[in-house]
């Protein structure tokens, strides 16, 4: 017997009723953008503040429109991943009735729920199901615990089993969490729910493609929504650039220079923050950050892990798929594929011309907000000088003014390279520590590094 339940009000893909105007769609979309960005910054805090606006599926529909009609691939990938995070959070906390209603909506006639229905329709006993699934489990220290859960799911929980058409969730076979039988994958509810985010994202992407196809066919009902897409995309891009950057976001997790974000130049601080909070960078920005990290000593394996965990366009990829596809450009900059060259990190002149320099790429207001959020103790005089240099088109001098503030002493030359920026701050710190050691009568450890955050001025 199934538990009947309507789709919960938070479920983003339910059918919408009533009518709205374009302004209401835009407003709902903007609120959804704000919320999804807040999830990236602080997941738990974002959901604690969730309200009726957040739970309104109209916001998701507005972003589907934006992804489909703007044809901005970066926005689409960001949207799919963060909407998937929203879905996963609520799905984990949903009642069994709500879970079943959502699974039925996502998979329709391609899913069978409940052991009695499965054994009746597919002609397989629960004993045989247990044997088949038990064979798939790895022989590790968790096997006994997993077997206990498996036994409970099959024999004591009528709703603990599902069968899904193999093309809907092929990754269950890849991960050895189900076995094929007459065109179906037989598995447990527990195993399916662990992978349900991918089912949701697949259906979400299908809606985007459907709307995009209607645009290509000249559907007037869709074309009238183009303004909505443009306004929301513009808002998202602005929020992305103005995303608050706080000193606590720049970690000091070790003594290696690629672990000392407090020593990095502003361009790299902003790029690593964008990657963490929005999950994407443009190709040029990825190259800029990747080469910088490489030259600071980060290993190929560490960079692969960083991008695999952070970049939204890896959603749904296994580690093996990422290494073959998304990891190619990382291996390229390490000289393992392609031209096999030992590429250097770009100097400031190249970055200003081709990549991302905040003193060239951002507006004065954007830069002002970022610096005020990052360095609340920065004197107004320093901030005014940096902004003046920027407005005069002197990006490298503006960067030198920023370095002077961090060092606590004047740096007269124009900044020429991000690695020089790191070196100067690091050497300033070492001199300070030697001075403090002499004054205290002790000798600092050769590899000692500052443990404080980047909110305080190095060398102050």
Task: Give your account of this protein's structure.
This protein has 460 residues and is mostly helical. It has 3 domains: 22-93 and 201-241, no CATH class; 105-197, no CATH class; 247-279 and 306-316 and 348-440, no CATH class. 60% of the residues lie in helices and 3% in strands. The chain is built from 25 helices and 4 strands. Strands 1-2-4-3 form a 4-stranded antiparallel beta sheet, sandwiched between helices. Helix 1 crosses helix 4 (58-70), helix 4 (58-70) packs across helix 12 (196-216) and helix 22 (364-374) runs antiparallel to helix 23. The longest helix is centred in the last third of the chain and has 23 residues, at 418-440. It is globular and about 80 Å long.
Write the layout of secondary structure elements.
Layout lengths: L21 H20 L1 H6 L3 H4 L2 H13 L2 H21 L2 H12 L3 E3 L1 H8 L3 H11 L6 H13 L5 E5 L5 H4 L4 E3 L2 E5 H6 L1 H21 L3 H4 L2 H16 L24 H13 L4 H13 L4 H11 L8 H6 L3 H6 L14 H7 L3 H4 L2 H11 L5 H12 L3 H13 L10 H23 L20
Antiparallel strand pairs: 1-2, 2-4, 3-4
Helix pairs in contact: 1-4, 1-5, 1-14, 4-5, 4-12, 4-14, 5-12, 8-9, 22-23, 23-24
Shape field:
globular
Q: What is the element string, with H for helices and E for strands? A: HHHHHHEHHHEHEEHHHHHHHHHHHHHHH
SS content category: mainly alpha
What's the arrangement of strands in the largest beta sheet? 1-2-4-3
Separation of the first and last Cα atoms: 70 Å
Number of domains: 3
């Amino acid at each position: 017997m199934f538990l009947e339940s309507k789709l919960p009000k938070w479920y983003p893909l339910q059918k919408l009723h009533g009518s709205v105007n374009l302004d209401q769609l835009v407003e709902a979309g903007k609120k959804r953008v704000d919320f999804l960005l807040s999830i990236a910054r602080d997941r738990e805090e974002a959901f604690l503040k969730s309200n009726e606006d957040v739970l309104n599926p109209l916001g998701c529909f507005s972003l589907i429109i934006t992804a489909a009609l703007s044809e901005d691939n970066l926005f689409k990938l960001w949207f799919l991943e963060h909407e998937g995070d929203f879905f996963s959070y609520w799905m984990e906390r949903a009642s069994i009735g709500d879970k079943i209603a959502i699974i039925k909506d996502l998979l329709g006639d391609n899913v069978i729920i409940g052991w009695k229905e499965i054994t009746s329709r597919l002609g397989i006993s629960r004993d045989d199901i247990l044997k088949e699934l038990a064979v798939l489990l790895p022989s590790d220290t968790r096997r006994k615990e997993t077997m206990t859960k498996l036994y409970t799911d099959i024999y004591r929980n009528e709703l603990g089993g599902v069968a899904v058409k193999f093309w809907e969730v092929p990754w269950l076979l890849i991960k050895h969490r189900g076995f094929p039988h007459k065109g179906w994958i037989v598995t447990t509810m527990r195993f399916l729910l662990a992978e349900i985010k991918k089912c949701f994202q697949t259906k979400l992407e299908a809606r985007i493609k459907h709307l995009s196809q209607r645009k290509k066919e000249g559907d007037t009902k869709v074309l009238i929504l183009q303004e909505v897409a443009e306004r929301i995309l513009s808002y998202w891009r602005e929020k992305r650039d103005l995303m608050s950057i706080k000193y606590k976001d720049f970690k000091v997790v070790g003594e290696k220079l690629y672990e000392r974000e407090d020593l990095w130049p502003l361009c790299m601080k902003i790029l690593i923050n964008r990657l963490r909070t929005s999950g994407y960078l443009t190709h040029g920005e990825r190259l800029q950050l990747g080469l910088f990290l490489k030259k600071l000593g980060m290993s190929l394996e560490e960079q692969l892990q960083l991008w695999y965990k952070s970049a939204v366009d890896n959603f749904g990829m296994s580690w093996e798929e990422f290494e073959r596809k998304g990891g190619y450009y990382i291996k390229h900059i390490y000289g393992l594929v392609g031209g096999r060259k030992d590429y250097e990190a770009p100097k400031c002149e190249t970055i200003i011309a081709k990549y991302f320099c905040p003193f060239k790429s951002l507006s004065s207001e954007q830069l002002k907000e970022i610096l005020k959020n990052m360095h609340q103790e920065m004197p107004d005089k320093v901030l005014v000088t940096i902004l003046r240099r920027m407005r005069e088109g002197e990006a490298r001098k503006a960067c030198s003014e920023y370095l002077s503030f961090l060092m606590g002493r004047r740096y007269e030359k124009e900044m020429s390279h991000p690695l020089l920026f790191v070196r100067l701050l690091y050497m300033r710190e070492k001199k300070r520590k030697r001075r403090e050691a002499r004054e205290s009568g002790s000798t600092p450890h050769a590899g000692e590094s500052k443990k404080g955050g980047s909110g305080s001025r190095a060398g102050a």
